[in-house]
Amino acid sequence: MTSPSSASSSGGTLLDEAPLLEVNNLVKHFPIRGGLIGRRPTGFVQAVNDISLTVGRGETVALVGESGCGKSTTARSVLRLLEPTSGEVRLDGVDVMALNQRDLRRARRDMQIVFQDPYASLNPRMTIRQTLTEKYELFGHQVTKSTISDLLDTVGLAEEYADRYPHEFSGGQRQRIGIARAIALNPKFIVLDEPVSALDVSIQAQIINLLEDLQDELGLTYLFIAHDLSVVRHIADRVAVMYLGSVVETADRDELFDRPHHPYTQALISAVPIPDPRVERRRERIVLRGDVPNPANPPSGCRFRTRCWKFEQLSETDARRCIEEPPPLYEIDGNPAHQASCHYASLRDVVRS
Amino acid sequence: MTTPPQSGREPDTHVPAEALMTRFEAPEPGAADATDTTGKGKKASGQLRDIWRRYKRNKLAVVGLVVVAFLMILAILQPWITPYDPMEQNLLNTRKPPSDGHWFGTDVLGRDMFSAIIYGVRLAMIVGWSVMFLSLIVGLALGAVAGFRGGALDSLIMRVTDIVLAFPALIGAILVVQIFGNGIWQVVIALAILSWPTAARLMRGSTLSLRESEYVEAARSIGASDTRIVTRHILPNAIAPTLIYSFSHIGVAVVAMASLAFLGIGVPPDIPEWGTMIANAVPSLNVEGESHMWVFPSLAIVVTTLAFAFVADGLRDSIDPKLR
Amino acid sequence: MARTDSTGSTPDFDLDGQAAPLLEIDDLRVHFKTDHGVVKAVDGVSWHVDEGETLAIVGESGSGKSVSAMSILGLVPTPPATFPSGDIRLRGRSILKMPEKQQRKLRGQEIAMIFQDPLTALNPVFKVGDQIAEMIRTHQDVTKTVARRRVLDLLGEVGIPNPGVRINQYPHEFSGGMRQRAMIAMALANDPKVLLADEPTTALDVTIQAQIMALLEKLRQERNTAIVLITHDLGLVASHADRINVMYAGRIVEAGSCDDVFYRPQHAYTFGLLSSLARMDKQRQDRLLPIKGVPPSLSKVPPGCPFHPRCQFATQGCVEAVPTLETVVTDETMNGGLHRAACIHSDQVEIAYSERLAP
């Protein structure tokens, strides 16, 4: 096991090693079936639209965005819990897309997921011991007397809880069980799908700390799906912001929060209230118009333009470019680690003002 | 739950506070025995005890359960209980009202009504439970497959259920018995054929919703195969509505068998069956002193059906409170 | 912003000759009888709110923060609920003592509520416009045409585009944010004096949340509506509340002005909450500082201070008696208003917090 725990605090990609996870041009379309008889699709929801990202060993990359932006679909497609429409996924050199069902099941040992809802992700009719034991059995591992108690101990639960059912636990405890299931048998890569957003405020910090401790101890690599930017700022090394199925901006954590360039990133950050009244009185909020468009029928050109505050301020000629030409990911200030897909990207401080 | 490392000072009363915490961290109501830390065996049966605790609240269901248990005992012990051979005829002693020798009187052929009714219990239990198990097994299997696999197989199975359900039940049963001939097992098969589609549809519905649930996805994420997902994760959680339906259907099966027998279909006429008994009593309907011939079998049918209905009702409330 | 100086502990009469508070809850207790014992969802809670003011009630799930608001609107079913004590007064008049008919008139007309899930307030089988018109016509004697014109105005006011089209649509044709706006329009139909907002944006995305909160802020300013914001989100509270009540296990544990609570917390729970938050505007700290343990079940509230099993300041005294909500005397009370806390270690809490705030 490689454990470059320094990576989690250094905040940069590790250039000396190949990334653990490499995703290239991932696409996931969901067919829309209309009518009662015909099973032929009448359209497609473009849930994930050509996404590429890399996650280095021991690194935490956050995928953020609002509901329906495709962040969860991306994560599930990477794990092939959903079959992607096209694209390439490599985990530690293994071509995940090429695996047949049997090999895929075996490969799941290395790629795990922690779910958002700790109430829904545990089988209510299985005790905690049964739930955890199942994973060892599936990968042909002997479960000794101490296996489960050691595992529970790692996530901060006492063994005496092992023979209880999920409904006897609080949300935070269930999430610890979900984490225990994910880290059993030392996976290389874990998707954390909004692991704290269903929890009470006072419990969130416990779980965040646990996840960070486990990363340091076990050298885990995280893809952290979230909509809560405060938590992202704390836990992530790098951040990718998604809107309507595409990555619109990606950068190292502090770079993204302190120097956001895409108008959507700026609006998103500015919309998050900060628990500090004096700071809040100083801040100006960018209030976006309207709702996210239907992903089955996205706007032409830049997908964000229908809600973009900057688009409204552009001259007609400048605005035409947004309508006609989908913006690629531009490098920002010559920094290859910071990219934003906006023709008119520019800095705006939205955290403090 | 252990405490995450805490910076800052620890109060001197830390230990009692910690002990108190475990005692008070019982989660939401419904977590009945969360604070009970005695014994593992007790823990494992916690769910059953929960079910029983909720079941007890429904008094009618408890009465129903007692009656069902009583009927089961009668059915098993019938050969030793009945004072007479229920088939034995005595043409010199027909249509006699209840007396010391014949508690429920005698019928048109001079058979002992009490013995016949008890024999009918045995028959009703055999047919009722058999229909339940058959339709449950077929319904669970086909419903689970349809719901989990989806696609063409799902369409096919559902269209078959449509066709069966579109048939008027009695005519369907008559048709099946006509095809297979008379006999108890033929009746069982006829009734099972008619009742599996509802079971299958219920099972399909539960499976469909559970297929998308996070814990099924979680099972897939740790490399569980489809077979394992269906048997370990979907079936135990999806079974409740189907089980309750099948159980409530026992009473229906008993009535259906009696109705067929009343029409002279299914159970051979020489076997004492409640429907046959009522049919035999039709000429005596308005004859004074012969009402015992239809009152007792009718009562037997009513009591049996109601008892199973009450139990099913109690199960619905107790197995899965969400179903209410 | 209107601020009154009525003391929280004796709100029945006013000390400075001012009118009674707009809406006032006094020593309210709401208990539920369950199989697992009596759940004391609200256990002796008092608060008040005035025109043009935003009062935030902050708490985690199971703190009882919603129940007090729901009992104002008579939305708590009895049984299983019982009200062992308490009064709810609108402009000094007790709502609970009014005849049923008059209570109903007040609810919806003077006091309206918006919920986390708009679908609980909107009936799926009726058109949105008809539901709002119905709301107007129950409380006001106006013709259908007048009511309809009023609905169009309301939909426009809450920022729903194309009100003429939307008025004839059903709730499922609205997006989440639009539904929330429709529910706000319905709540505003009779120009209520008090708006109870129970987690109004929890189900929404942050950009939509910003829209909805901006709308509520506008209404407060233009109509001088009193807003009771019930939430767990301390960010929302910091940006919108004038005063804050922090609830824990069915009781108010700290109450004060927004700045007082955020910058000089006096209760160990408030201290813990504020310390545990990850902040978007700060460079990453090494570790978060969580509150240990889990919130208590309301049917088994620990004796003494309900927070003591999780509290880093707890001593034997915390176990022995339930601390009462005492006025905190500080040398400089920020932004006026009373600051109260139910914590016997508030001195230590304040010192610890100022150490933490110091860079």
Q: Mean pLDDT of chain B, nearest integer?
A: 80
Shape of chain C: globular
What is the terminal separation of chain C in angstroms?
Answer: 33 Å
Query: Termini of chain B, distance in Å?
Result: 34 Å
Named at the architecture level, the CATH assignment of the domain at 71-82 and 128-323 in chain B is Orthogonal Bundle
Uncertain ranges of chain B: 1-44
Mean pLDDT of chain C: 84
**Structural class, judged by helices and strands of chain C?**
alpha/beta
- Report helical residue fraction of chain C: 25-40%
Strand content of chain B: under 5%
What order do the helices and strands of chain B follow? Answer: HHHHHHHHHHHH
Largest interface: A-C, 49 and 49 residues
Pfam families (chain C): ABC_tran, oligo_HPY
Family (chain C): Belongs to the ABC transporter superfamily.
InterPro entries (chain C): AAA+_ATPase (IPR003593), ABC_Ni/Peptide_Import (IPR050388), ABC_transporter-like_ATP-bd (IPR003439), ABC_transporter-like_CS (IPR017871), Oligopep_ABC_C (IPR013563), P-loop_NTPase (IPR027417)
Protein name (chain C): ABC transporter ATP-binding protein
Structural commentary:
The complex is a heterotrimer of chains A (353), B (324) and C (359). With 353 residues, chain A is an alpha/beta fold. Helix content of chain A is 31%, strand content 22%. Chain A has a single domain, classed as P-loop containing nucleotide triphosphate hydrolases (Rossmann fold), CATH 3.40.50. The longest helix of chain A has 18 residues. Chain B has a domain of 208 residues: MetI-like fold. The N terminus of chain B is likely disordered. Chain C is globular, with a radius of gyration of 21 Å. In chain C, strands 6-7-8-3-9-10-12-11 form an eight-stranded mixed β-sheet, sandwiched between helices. Helix content of chain C is 33%, strand content 21%. By secondary structure, chain C is α/β, with parallel strands linked by helices. At the A-C interface, helix 7, helix 8, helix 9, helix 10 and helix 11 of A face helix 7, helix 8, helix 9 and helix 10 of C.
Sum this structure up briefly:
The complex is a heterotrimer of chains A (353), B (324) and C (359). By secondary structure, chain A is α/β, with parallel strands linked by helices. Helices cover 31% and strands 22% of the residues of chain A.
